[in-house]
Design a protein that fits this description.
Length: 102
Amino acid sequence: MSAEASKRASVGGGASADTLYNQGVIAWNANDFAKSQEYFAGAVAANPNHAESHFMLGRVFLNLGKLPEAAKEFETYVKIAPTGKNAKEAQTNFDMLKPMIK
């Protein structure tokens, strides 16, 4: 089923932000950070206000050592969903990474 979902959730293929987010989570759980970055970025492109995609993209960037990019994604999450389920973690991560934003 995951393979079939992947075919239908191609980035740039008109997939919804939720579909791309879900595929990103599958890639994340498989430790495929490059693929999860692609899916979460696609979800953000499809819906710039998809808070959970920003949060997960921040986590991906942390794992890839892209700290300024991670900080920006956590900041965006907090702006979009200041009381969201990941707001506290996003704010903590942003505060820690803020000095690294160029």
